[in-house]
From TrEMBL:
This is Phosphatidylserine synthase. Catalyzes a base-exchange reaction in which the polar head group of phosphatidylethanolamine (PE) is replaced by L-serine. It catalyses: a 1,2-diacyl-sn-glycero-3-phosphoethanolamine + L-serine = a 1,2-diacyl-sn-glycero-3-phospho-L-serine + ethanolamine. InterPro entries: PSS. It is a multi-pass membrane protein. Belongs to the phosphatidyl serine synthase family. It comes from Ceratitis capitata. It is found in: Endoplasmic reticulum membrane. It is an enzyme of class 2 (transferase).
């Protein structure tokens, strides 16, 4: 999709989005909300005003990332590096401008941290779980059939992953660093697309 957009002009791309969802013609990103203004105000009302739908996006997003990556060290590295990325590109993307307590406490420690913790707890539970894949035809109770149908969307097995250990080679370490960098670039690309195309983040993702 992105390769196709590279050969189109801005108007053509926006017309494609409007064709997919006509409501986007009336959609506008709220650029008036400032996250980085008057940072000395640490009142409860001020902190509460910064809590919006993106708080849940942070939490659930990092929970899913934890299930994918399954390594606390790498997850925390990505989380901290993302805040550094926001500071680096704040002059280009206004919504990256945040107060220090918003970036460090609300984002990194609370939203991201809780999401990472929940995601890793889910991984731990799935690792210890005993998977019994019986045919749904062999289950007599309705509750059992429903439970078996839900289990269809869970993995056959769940393997613990060790990205790095003391015996890891330099190539392995370089590959992990490459993963972290590519992860940052991918997420940054989403924010740039949202800013340039002025579309909802679900569309640009």
């Amino acid at each position: 999709m992105l390769q196709f957009f590279m050969f189109q002009n801005y108007k053509t791309i926006m017309n494609i989005f409007y064709w997919l969802d006509p409501k986007l013609q009336d959609f506008h990103i709220n650029m008036e909300k400032e996250y980085g203004a008057n940072c000395s105000d640490l009142s409860f009302e001020r902190i509460y005003s910064t809590i919006d739908v993106f708080v849940w996006g942070h939490f659930f997003g990092w929970a899913f990332k934890a299930v994918l990556i399954r390594h606390a060290g790498i997850l925390w590295a990505i989380s901290v590096m993302w805040e550094i990325t926001e500071i680096t590109f704040a002059h280009l993307l206004p919504n990256f401008v945040e107060c220090w307590w918003d970036a460090l406490i609300l984002d990194v420690l609370i939203c991201n941290g809780l999401g990472i913790w929940v995601g890793l707890r889910i991984c731990k539970a799935l690792e210890m779980r005993e998977y019994k894949w019986a045919s749904i035809k062999d289950i007599s109770s309705t509750t059992g059939k429903i439970k078996r149908a839900v289990l269809q969307f869970t993995p056959e097995s769940f393997t613990s992953i060790r990205w790095l250990d003391p015996k890891s080679t330099a190539m392995r370490f370089a590959a992990v660093c490459q993963l972290v960098v590519f992860w940052q670039v991918t997420e940054l690309n989403t924010f740039f697309l949202k800013h340039i195309l002025k579309c909802h983040q679900i569309i640009t993702s």
